[in-house]
């Protein structure tokens, strides 16, 4: 539905009766776009912007020498700006996975409360494991805490469905997973069998460029059980990260080794299917690890 005065920012400049300009500069490549708009719509329409309403009330901004607002925006926010203007002018909201976070960011920037509510609601209902990485990446780029929180909560609620090949695994930082794991959820969000999760955590650790001991420990601590396919990878990571002093060996390192030994000993095909690389990793384990693995394996056969 068009605005009641039939004003349209998309009209040719010579016919639009525009009395204000908005200049958008994209921060990544310095590209600019200028939109010829109308103060009556921006500040007084049913979908007005509180930002523009405030600056138009100030005489020093509203005089003839000041007829332009300038913004520097990330490219994603800059691309979403026409959809925001269409919305202000009364058109249906053109929102999708790729611009929802940017529209939410712009609604906060320009003081548009209803758009803020609608865009955040869209983000929440549209999120899936297939597009979660898009919301995460854009929320991080735009520093949008509310969308980032939605991503974290969604991940917590659906962590038992995540596979190592989901895009969110490769696109996210370890901190997202630490935050999601730390959420105290309902009983249905608890994961009793963490073998599938251990494969996800192992991949996150292996591809992280900033992994340190504390981060590693916070990621692997919730893993009550570990899948045998990633046990050696986690052992190797632990060897690389943990200092060689006794305190660390007696705490997180030994607990992880115990879980890895249990995982390997319960896999009847583990030794039979070892490739050369995995055999090399196994032979680098400590004598204690190998003895424990042998004892656990023998005990398993007896059971």
TrEMBL record:
SUPFAM superfamilies: POZ domain. InterPro entries: BTB-POZ/Galectin-3-binding, BTB/POZ_dom, SKP1/BTB/POZ_sf. Residues 18-97 form the BTB domain. PROSITE patterns: BTB. This is BTB domain-containing protein. It comes from Fistulifera solaris (Oleaginous diatom). The lineage of its organism: Eukaryota, Sar, Stramenopiles, Ochrophyta, Bacillariophyta.
């Amino acid at each position: 539905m068009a605005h009641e005065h039939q004003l349209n920012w998309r009209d040719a400049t010579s016919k639009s009766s525009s009395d204000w300009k908005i200049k958008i500069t994209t921060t990544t490549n310095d590209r600019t776009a200028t939109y010829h708009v109308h103060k009556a719509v921006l500040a007084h329409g049913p979908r007005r912007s509180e930002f523009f309403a405030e600056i138009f009330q100030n005489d020093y901004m509203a005089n003839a020498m000041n007829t332009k607002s300038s913004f520097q925006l990330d490219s994603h926010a800059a691309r979403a700006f026409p959809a925001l203007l269409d919305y202000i002018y009364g058109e249906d909201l053109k929102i999708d996975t790729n611009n929802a976070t940017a529209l939410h960011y712009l609604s906060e920037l320009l003081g548009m409360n209803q758009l803020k509510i609608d865009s955040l609601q869209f983000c929440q209902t549209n999120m899936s494991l297939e597009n979660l990485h898009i919301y995460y990446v854009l929320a991080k780029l735009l520093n949008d805490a509310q969308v980032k929180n939605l991503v974290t909560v969604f991940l917590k609620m659906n962590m038992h469905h995540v596979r190592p090949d989901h895009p969110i695994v490769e696109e996210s930082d370890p901190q997202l997973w630490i935050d999601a794991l730390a959420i105290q959820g309902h009983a249905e969000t608890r994961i009793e069998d963490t073998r599938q999760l251990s494969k996800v955590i192992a991949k996150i650790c292996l591809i992280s460029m900033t992994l340190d001991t504390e981060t590693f420990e916070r990621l692997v601590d919730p893993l009550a059980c570990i899948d045998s396919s990633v046990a050696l990878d986690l052992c190797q990571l632990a060897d690389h990260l943990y200092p060689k002093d006794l305190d660390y060996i007696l705490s997180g390192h030994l607990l992880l080794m115990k879980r890895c030994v249990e995982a390997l000993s319960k896999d009847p095909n583990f030794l039979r299917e070892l490739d050369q690389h995995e055999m090399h990793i196994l032979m680098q384990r400590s004598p204690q690890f190998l003895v424990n693995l042998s004892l656990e394996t023998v005990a398993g056969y007896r059971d």
